[in-house]
Amino acid sequence: MIAARLFAHQFRSDLVRFWRNPQSRYFTVLLPIVFLVIFEEIFKGTTIVDGQRITITTFYVPGIMTLGIISASFVNLTQAVVAQRESGELKRLRGTPLPTGFVITSRAAVGVVVAIVMSALLLAIGRVAYNVPIPSSTMPGLLIAVVVGAASFACIAFAVSTRIGTAEAAAPATNLAVLPLYFISGVFVPEAQLPRFMHDIATVFPIEHLAQAVREPFIQTHGAGISTSDLLVVAAWGSVALLIAARTLQFSPRAT
Q1: How far is CA 200 from CA 181, 231, 236, in A?
Q2: Helices (H) and strands (E) in the chain, counts
Q3: pTM of the predicted structure, to 2 decimals
Q4: Torsion angle, CA of 15/19/24/26, rounded to 10 degrees?
Q5: How far apart are CA 12 and CA 95, in angstroms?
Q6: Which of 38, 68, 138, 180, CA to CA, is 20 to 30 A from 102?
Q7: Confidence category of residue 3, pLDDT binned at 50, 70, 90
Q8: Helix or strand or coil: residue 49?
Q9: Which of 75, 224, 232 minimizes the C-alpha distance to 149?
C-alpha cells in the first residue's frame, strides 16, 4: 500500500510537471493536431494501403496518431530524462526513499497516458471534422497498438537518453532521429508512393511497424484489428531498449 502511494504521488507530480511545461504541451499535444489539420486540408482523394483503396483522410488520422504516440512517449520523454539528469534532479531522487524503478516507470506511465489521450483526441477530431469512421469491432486492436507502442517507445527513450550528453542536444537529436523515419515509414507519405529501397529501410525500424499496427484497425473492419507481427517487432525494440537502459541509464550529470 505504501509503495502504491509513493508511485501515485510521483506519477501525479510528473503528470502535473508535463502539463505545466509549455514546450511539452505544444510539441506533444498541439503539434500533432496542427499536422492533422494541415494534411487533411491540403491532401484530398484516395490512396492504396495494403492493397485496399482508402480516403486520404482515413490514412492521415492513424498516421498522425502514430506521430502523437512517439512524440509523447519518445521525443518528450527523452528530452525530459536528459534535462532531469543534467540538472541533478535524477541524482537527488535516487537519494530519496522513492525506489529507482518508480522514478523510471512513473515517467514512462505519463508518456503512455498522454499517448492514449492524444490518440483519443485525434480520433475525435478525425470523426467530427473529417468524417473518418471510428473503429468499433477493431477498437481493441487500436487500443493495444497505442499502449504497446507508447510503452515500447518509452523504453527506447530511456536507452537513447544515455547517448545524449547535454540537455541542449536532446531536442535536435530526437527530432533528427524520428523526422526522416516519419516520411519513409508511412506516417506522412503513403507507402505506395515511396521508392522500394526507402520502404525496405523503414521496415528495420519500429516507427513503420507502429504505423501499420495503428492503421490496421481503420483498414480491416472485421476481427479485432490486431496486427500481431508488427506489434511483436515494436515490442522487441522496446524490450531490447529496456535491457540497454537497465545497464546504462545514468542518474548523475555528465562530467564536463
Answers
A1: 12, 18, 18
A2: 12, 2
A3: 0.91
A4: 150
A5: 20
A6: 68
A7: confident
A8: strand
A9: 232
Q: Which three cell numbers stand for residue 222?
A: 472485421
C-alpha span between 123 and 138 (Å, rounded): 14
Q: How far, in Å, CA of 57 to CA of 64, rounded?
A: 11
The per-residue pLDDT for range 51-92, each reduced to its tens digit, is 778 888 889 999 999 999 999 999 989 998 998 889 888 888
Q: Which conformational region is residue 131 in: left (phi greater than 0), alpha (psi within -120 to 50 degrees), or beta? A: left
Which amino acid does the sequence have at 130?
Y
- The answer to whether the CB of 187 falls within 8 A of the CB of 67 is yes
Considering Cα of 156, then 157, then 158, then 159, what sign does the dihedral take?
positive
Taking all residues of the chain, what is their mean pLDDT, rounded to a whole number? 88
- The Cα 171–Cα 82 span in angstroms is 10
Helix 228-248, helix 206-219: angle, nearest 10: 150
Instruction: Decide if 90 contacts 4 (C-beta within 8 A).
Output: no
Find out whether 191 and 49 touch, Cβ atoms under 8 Å. Answer: yes
Burial of 194 (0-12, 13-18, 19+ CB in 10 A): middle
